[in-house]
Amino acid sequence: MKIIDHIAKAQGKTLFSFELLPPVKGQSIQQIYQAIDPLMEFNPPFIDVTYLREDYIYRQHESGLLQKLAYRKRPSTVATCAAIMNRYKVDAVPHLICGGFDKEETENALIDLQFLGIDNVLALRGDARKSDSSFIPSPGGHAYASDLVKQIADLNNGKYLHSDIDNPINTDFCIGVAGYPEKHFESPNMETDFRYLKLKVDMGAKFIVTQMFFDNTRYKAFVDKCRANGINVPIIPGLKPLTSSKQLISLPKTFHLDIPLELSEAVQACKSEKDVKELGIEWMIQQCRELKAMGAPVLHFYTMGNPEPTKRIASALF
Fold this sequence. Notes:
Blueprint: H1 3-10, E1 15-20, H2 30-36, E2 46-49, E3 55-60, E4 66-71, H3 77-88, E5 91-97, H4 103-115, E6 120-124, H5 145-156, E7 174-179, H6 190-203, E8 205-210, H7 216-228, E9 235-236, E10 238-239, H8 247-255, H9 261-268, H10 273-294, E11 298-302, H11 307-317
């Protein structure tokens, strides 16, 4: 079922969902099940599975020369989605990214997803490789998420890359895109950010999932600005509790977000990391209660493979 249909069926009730990472190469799918099982009591209608771009590793030969090799640490997003759907009978939402794929590979991936009965995709540009100072598209691939959205929308209209296909069928993917309540870090200003978000919606995106945030006024302002700009699709807040004092530095650095002064000062006043975790979970519970009161269609949690904090939060809300 499409995400927008799940939301419509809920008739205003806030749903619960979460995102997880596919297994590291060499790991078992059982580790994914262990991250999902504790959260299934909250009846998530869908589960997101991330896709990470390949990076480079360097292998030293006996001669002393270094060989540069492409390496994908978590290569099994599509297989993980299939395993989730088979085991739990819920919709899996794979992330599709621009980096690491040319247009032909993207089209083939979409065909595989269609054959598996996957109805939803989250179309993202993806991050730059760690070894690159900025995002570099793959040869023959997309440079922007809007280009990826267009390719998926074209396929939904029966437009494939090659014109020699006889009687091509239309796919029917429900396309999601990312939104940034505190502005994408590469965007020069919020107005430009909204212009490109509107472009993706006009191209066919049907829902938005936000970057994590800790200040609900940012989410409300983002939703209001979207509506004022003619963006009327569901806007799903992405959430992650703060669980360690180190995250006061790492989260703003990695995700380009603000930690509210009240929260940061409360963390700094904690006497132990256990106290920090308890504070972060309680902050998120209160934040989620406010979001439910605002009418957020879904509370979507970035679990990072650790279900315990999310389970505690969901237990207080659902």
